[in-house]
Write a structure and sequence with these properties.
Layout lengths: L9 H12 L5 H10 L4 E2 H8 L3 H13 L3 E6 L2 E6 L2 H17 L4 H12 L1
Antiparallel strand pairs: 1-3, 2-3
């Protein structure tokens, strides 16, 4: 567990950020983040959306939980996940918006696809 430390340097912060950003190198984890949005979802709901097994989703969620991107709670036999900090969702969204602009992609078409996938 990371503790507040007066000796925590700027280099330490950049190192932590670089390790943290590795999470975003995986398409499945980006889909999980997007699907969770501001809501709480069960592992089964996430697996159905992402299109992989519950076991595979659970592995990704464990990695994300270890880095404090998501947190979970159990209700009966179901485990639910949510994002711990809105900024962890906003970061990839900003990058996605930048990619749409830089690569001159059809933003309207992409937004429609994202909206239809969410329902």
């Amino acid at each position: 567990m990371l503790k507040k430390n007066l000796r925590f340097t700027l280099d330490d912060l950049f190192s932590l950020q670089a390790e943290f950003c590795v999470i975003f190198r995986n398409e499945i984890r980006l889909k999980i983040l997007w699907f969770l949005g501001k809501d709480e979802k069960s592992v089964g709901e996430i697996a159905d959306y992402v299109g992989v097994s519950m076991s595979n989703v659970s592995q990704h969620l464990r990695i994300m939980k270890d880095r404090r991107i998501v947190k979970s709670h159990k209700e009966g036999q179901r485990i639910y996940y949510r994002i711990t900090n809105e900024k962890f969702r906003q970061g990839p969204e900003l990058v996605r918006s930048g990619l749409i602009e830089v690569y001159n992609l059809d933003a309207e078409k992409i937004q429609k696809a994202l909206s239809s996938k969410a329902s």
